[in-house]
TrEMBL record:
<dbReference type="InterPro" id="IPR015421">
    <property type="entry name" value="PyrdxlP-dep_Trfase_major"/>
</dbReference>
<dbReference type="InterPro" id="IPR050596">
    <property type="entry name" value="AspAT/PAT-like"/>
</dbReference>
<feature type="domain" description="Aminotransferase class I/classII large">
    <location>
        <begin position="31"/>
        <end position="379"/>
    </location>
</feature>
<dbReference type="InterPro" id="IPR015422">
    <property type="entry name" value="PyrdxlP-dep_Trfase_small"/>
</dbReference>
<protein>
    <recommendedName>
        <fullName>Aminotransferase</fullName>
        <ecNumber>2.6.1.-</ecNumber>
    </recommendedName>
</protein>
<dbReference type="GO" id="GO:0008483">
    <property type="term" value="F:transaminase activity"/>
</dbReference>
<keyword id="KW-0663">Pyridoxal phosphate</keyword>
<dbReference type="InterPro" id="IPR015424">
    <property type="entry name" value="PyrdxlP-dep_Trfase"/>
</dbReference>
<comment type="similarity">
    <text>Belongs to the class-I pyridoxal-phosphate-dependent aminotransferase family.</text>
</comment>
<dbReference type="InterPro" id="IPR004838">
    <property type="entry name" value="NHTrfase_class1_PyrdxlP-BS"/>
</dbReference>
<dbReference type="Pfam" id="PF00155">
    <property type="entry name" value="Aminotran_1_2"/>
</dbReference>
<dbReference type="InterPro" id="IPR004839">
    <property type="entry name" value="Aminotransferase_I/II_large"/>
</dbReference>
<keyword id="KW-0032">Aminotransferase</keyword>
<keyword id="KW-0808">Transferase</keyword>
């Protein structure tokens, strides 16, 4: 008996991941320097790990409430209020999720009906589009390349008006993966004026909010709480990617549906990790500061070195990525270039194609030591010299 033809037709629309295919191939290359990684190269702070071990020894291994440990939800609410002036009721407006990835999935699943359109400014993190499509939604890409990777309100308004009421939501991700670009208060306020004109959700993924350079992060949770589904977590701010601590903040009535999806999928995030997350938010409130200093040093080195080699780069003011346009002497698209570079020079950059339609770009992560970055630049320089 063959039951394949009876499986979900929505999943047929989900295309294979360019990023996963590329990473799987370059992972087989010996001695390759992988500047593709989307996680801090720092270890989780010691005080956080110690609390985790204490929680395990204390047998904190039983179910907690699906919404999340009440003390953790309060710590999350306090964090958002103190850092970003975004005020949420811990009891019914905060949800603890298994990473920001689950938060994204829960949020989109909770709001989408078949045929709903979601505007996705590109280049952008690859995960949003397949989740939209798996839920029967339609992805409407809006390219920001010509505007220095900043979404312009007039272009956004034009796309919404042209949809004849089909747009259900827009995705914001700032500081951005892959560009590292973030928004000023003035730029966000201009977008808010457009959002207020239309009955739509703003899914604001602010997972890199603690990693900004020379600019303060402004949250959509402050500017437009009533329409915003705010996503954040501890992966980037506390070097806790593998711990999987995410959060959703949203108005009470919206949160009811998001919480329902969460309960149906994972029930609750792991108990001892939630206790550990309280320590991270309360005692490790500013754990990201030392990481930020290192990232700025690495960013500035790479921008100068790669610009000298012919790459064109918009200065990133957040996260830990450069989104670099290929030098003029490169006659390949980003994927072919990235693959050839990995095999020939033993340096792996993420192809821009993975972030939707930017095939003459590569994403470069500087979540790597300065010595690794220097060696990578040396190898890239020799590779480009051979091309010339």
């Amino acid at each position: 008996m063959n039951l394949e033809h009876n499986m979900s037709r929505q999943l047929d629309h989900v295309k294979p991941s360019v990023m996963m295919n590329y990473n799987a191939e370059v992972a087989q290359i010996e001695d390759v320097i992988r500047l593709t990684v989307g996680e801090p190269d720092f270890n989780t702070p010691k005080h956080i790990k110690e609390v985790a071990m204490q929680a395990i020894k204390a047998n904190e291994s039983h179910y907690t409430t699906p919404q999340g440990n009440p003390k953790l939800r309060q710590a999350m609410a306090n964090f958002l209020a103190k850092h970003y002036d975004a005020h949420y009721n811990a009891e019914d407006e905060i949800l603890v999720t298994v990473g920001a990835s689950e938060a994204i999935y829960d949020s989109l699943t909770a709001i989408l009906n078949e045929g709903d359109e979601v505007i996705v400014p590109t280049p952008i993190f690859p995960q949003y589009a397949p989740i939209i499509e798996a839920n029967g939604g339609i992805v409407k890409f809006l390219d920001t390349t010509e505007d220095d990777f900043i979404l312009k309100p007039e272009k956004l308004d034009q796309m919404i008006e042209a949809s004849n009421g089909k747009v259900k939501a827009i995705i914001l991700n700032y500081p951005s993966n892959p560009t590292g670009v973030t928004y000023s208060r003035e730029e966000l306020n201009a977008l808010v004026q457009v959002f207020k004109k239309h009955e739509l959700f703003v899914i604001s993924d602010e997972i890199y909010s603690e990693l900004t350079y020379g600019i303060d992060h402004v949250s959509m949770g402050e500017l437009l709480k009533e329409q915003t589904i705010l996503i954040n977590g501890l992966s980037k701010s506390h070097a806790m990617t593998g711990w999987r601590v995410g959060m959703v903040a949203a108005p009470k009535e919206i949160m009811k549906k998001i919480s329902l999806v969460h309960k149906l999928s994972v029930v609750t995030a792991p108990t001892f990790i939630q206790i550990t997350a309280i320590e991270a938010l309360e005692a490790g409130e500013f754990d990201a500061q030392d990481m930020k200093k290192a990232y700025v040093k690495r960013r500035d080195y790479l921008i100068q070195a790669l610009t000298d080699l012919g790459f064109e780069i918009k200065l990133p003011t957040g996260a830990f990525y450069l989104f670099a346009k290929l030098p003029k002497q490169v006659n390949q698209n980003g994927y072919a270039f990235a693959l050839d570079l990995a095999y020939q020079a033993k340096v792996a950059f993420s192809p821009g194609e993975a972030f939707f339609g930017h095939d003459n770009y590569v994403r470069i992560s500087y979540a790597a030591s300065l010595s690794q970055l220097e060696e990578a630049v040396s190898r890239v320089s020799k590779y480009l010299a051979k091309l010339s």
